[in-house]
Fold these 2 entries.
Entry 1:
Amino acid sequence: KAGVTQTPRYLIKTRGQQVTLSCSPISGHRSVSWYQQTPGQGLQFLFEYFSETQRNKGNFPGRFSGRQFSNSRSEMNVSTLELGDSALYLCASSLVGSRNTEAFFGQGTRLTVV
Amino acid sequence: AQTVTQSQPEMSVQEAETVTLSCTYDTSESDYYLFWYKQPPSRQMILVIRQEAYKQQNATENRFSVNFQKAAKSFSLKISDSQLGDAAMYFCAYPQETSGSRLTFGEGTQLTVNP
């Protein structure tokens, strides 16, 4: 079956702009999580959505937001982009998002803010 | 909150040899899970192996095995008969105690496999 698909793969934006990233989970998976990966901070949890509701949220400013649609596809939005938002954004899906289940990751969206 | 530490930023191993990657964590929980994920140059994270804390037996998946020492809060990954395709960044991860999915990752260890 198809894996987790993230679009676009690469993105270049200017400071102050906003951006929307998309994630299509594996069919049947209801939990979608987002992570930011940078050389300095490593992998950091952004938020998790389950059945269209935000279930967990990491320690990121309100400029970072997300949503999940009824087909489990998820989007994350970053407004008023800053240079420090340049990162690899990874999406992960799992069946129900419990602690013992495997999270399947997409290949990420590389965001560069100039 | 739980923390995960990987003290080896880089490791290298000769093809066909064995290498061990270290991970320590801090938690007050008695029952939990631990994962090792691999991130190759394609950037896609792949689950390598998982361990359940209440199981005394160390998990094994083909050439990959763990040395889980609960009292010491240590969770190392051993790769036997290393192959060129094992070259990647390896992350130790702890799923947080929460209703849902929230992984805390270590800093990662970049593994190089030399032919």
Entry 2:
Amino acid sequence: AQSVTQLDSHVSVSEGTPVLLRCNYSSSYSPSLFWYVQHPNKGLQLLLKYTSAATLVKGINGFEAEFKKSETSFHLTKPSAHMSDAAEYFCVVSAVDSNYQLIWGAGTKLIIKP
Amino acid sequence: GAGVSQSPSNKVTEKGKDVELRCDPISGHTALYWYRQSLGQGLEFLIYFQGNSAPDKSGLPSDRFSAERTGGSVSTLTIQRTQQEDSAVYLCASSLEREGLQFFGPGTRLTVL
């Protein structure tokens, strides 16, 4: 069975500083991993995905994530935060033994301080 | 349209009433998922349709919840005798195939008074 843990419910950073949103997962099989973003009053948008190719995945809006099997982590990073990055971020795992359903983390709210 | 659409965008109902939520997936997508997001919670899987196969209903929280998918396209999620704890955003997603990337609709915000 799979599970996803987002280690921080809220992360607050100043504009222009680096962003780190942490995610750990457990999976019996080789998983696919995703980060989704949800801006206030908007639908979900895919940021990036990992599907057993390169372990460092680049996504939209300057975000990237690194798959570390030994640490069972898939942390999301961005070198320099922008005010428009303020949103809720979800780490998600999917694998064959869950019928490819998406197992969602609880979300991390990213707050950007001016 | 090019994306997944859902209607209504907002629904306010009284406790005990039935509601129907609609999802129009991307044309040609064989897989369709329903999720809900309660306030402060992560997304919760509800039900999954794949082609003509029997749906996976393992995520439905009670027998008040049901869903159908007509003609392999449009899906309707029905909640009978709504309760206040049913208040949430209900999200629909579709994918080209079972393990494909899921595209999400904007959701229906359900409020049960």
